[in-house]
User: Fold these one by one.
Assistant:
Number 1:
Amino acid sequence: MHRLLDEARRMPPASLSFARSVSNVWPPDHLVNLREMVRKHYRGDLGTLHTTLEEHLPDAGAQLGVYLAAGEMALMEAVGRSVLPAEDRRALRKLWDTLLQAR
């Protein structure tokens, strides 16, 4: 969780341009149960991550939802890392990593 919070605080302003091009963010269908488990059992961590993103990106406006969804999927990857196949881990981190690498 500390890694995700550190990454959220480093989210570059340039990521807003990319976030504007994203219309829908969904985890793969077969990971919806993991999403529900994270929402139920890691609610506090998810709330902290969302608050960190909101504070770090106060001008995100409508794009904030992209960051919140990407953060949720990154948390899903962190929670399920030891049991998820590499392909699922990559899929869950893809948007988060893309936002982090924006220049």
Note: The radius of gyration is 13 Å.
Number 2:
Amino acid sequence: LQSKENSNSGHQFSSSENVEASMITATVQLQKCIRYNILQEDVTLFLGLQKLCKEYFPDTNLLELLFDTPNLSADVKKDFMRLLSIETK
């Protein structure tokens, strides 16, 4: 992840490294959560992370990062995308 400094953000981070560490931790946790059961809260978390990612890491595709693990089956990815499309309508 390559960060851009964003002093106009409503988020309070002391450095871009802290943002990156938080994003990585949250994405790994989300991968673990959706591995067995996808909840509405998971989609809501993803949307919040996506907003943060666009703000601090505009060249990063969060969905690719989320799905970049051998532990997520094609069915899990499909179900997540289905819930995501419903939430973003």
Note: The chain has four helices and no strands.
Number 3:
Amino acid sequence: MARIFIVSLLAQLVIIALFLYWSWQAEQFMCRSGIADCSLWQRFNELAGMAFYSAVCAWLFTTVLSVLGGVLASTRLTIALPPVFLFLGWLLVLII
């Protein structure tokens, strides 16, 4: 049972990293100088949206699985780490 939580955590972190990269790429194509490539911005924005919703679904699946399996106390890191990583990464993207 513990192996599925480790795989789920790694998958969530990869999906969140993809979300952060694609949202950063979308921001790069919609630059502030007035010259923008709207088609590439839309493409990366849609990819970032799909990655975000995939990460949320994977996180919810992991949370429900740990509650139903009765191992909530031992899987706190698996449940708490992805939202923290997403929040800190989002702040990093806003700063860069």
Note: Residues 15 and 51 are 6 Å apart (CA to CA).
Number 4:
Amino acid sequence: MSTIGAYFAYNKYKEIRVVRELEKKVEEEKKMKEQMREKYKDIKTVDDFIQGSKYLENNAPFGYNLDSLESKKYFLSKVNFTYLKEVYGLLNKGLANNTEAENTKLIEFLPKIFLN
């Protein structure tokens, strides 16, 4: 009986250890993303916009995956940078924190990028 108990105790120990390692990994990832968000808080170029969008909390607003912006660099370079900076600020702020008018601005802008 003690062998069976030891077996189950060891398995439970391994399970707890794996869960803790995964939790630690997730925490490190969150910290890294937070640091990168802080780094790209104030964008100065289109490249900063592209790189910064990878670290947003919601990098797929309204179903548009911002990870694929690298392929849209030509179009983004033609957009007025002040407007691009404003859009980045809205994305960084988060959809839930934006007003309806701000979200409408995003809804008008994002399809232009991804449908061209």
Note: The chain has a mean pLDDT of 88.
